[in-house]
């Protein structure tokens, strides 16, 4: 889907893109190409249609704008009612926020989640997040992590972490609301493995995906809200860190 050009904007080649992790009406993994000098993201109305329109009622009609400034993508929150976050940090209205690849942008407290990248992919990425159609809430039960004991307390139940579970959860938690690349995960969680020519431990994606699956199943799928961006990495979503 190509960006709709503002009448006053200048049409450019694709210089960056947004991948939808969560945000109706787009399918998870949809690539939104940034091809204009200015791209407005918000919610459509009878009187106005932004370049990319999301249907959630908590998204403002003009929520954010991404401008190309000196070969960089710069995000501005346009005074949205329910706010914008970049990597878990609240964006101040009308202030410039230069974007970097792997930045995670949340609109309206996570109602819509986008992954920014300068690395344009011509194909749709595959995501494994929570369903974009389900209600978005914090986990219903209290969660306490005792790092020194390597255990979690979920709904009053103590659950011991295995070594690999501990290493992955700690890594994602330390980088909460940011995409952690696959290579970084392999190096942190499997340091004992022999490395290949690329310097990355020899760990298959099946092993990594299986570890994430075990964590979701063992601790409850809503305890650690982990989204997978296939081919890139994983994101742990936290609103209270």
UniProtKB/TrEMBL annotation:
Domain FHA: 39-91
Pfam family, one: FHA
Native source species: Paenibacillus tianmuensis
One GO molecular-function entry: DNA binding
Residue ranges the UniProt entry marks as DNA-binding: 131-238
A GO biological-process term: phosphorelay signal transduction system
Protein name in UniProt: Transcriptional regulatory protein, C terminal
PANTHER family referenced in this protein's UniProt entry, alphabetically: NUCLEAR INHIBITOR OF PROTEIN PHOSPHATASE-1
Keyword Repeat belongs to the record: no
Ranges of residues in domain OmpR/PhoB-type: 131-238
Keywords: DNA-binding, Transcription, Transcription regulation
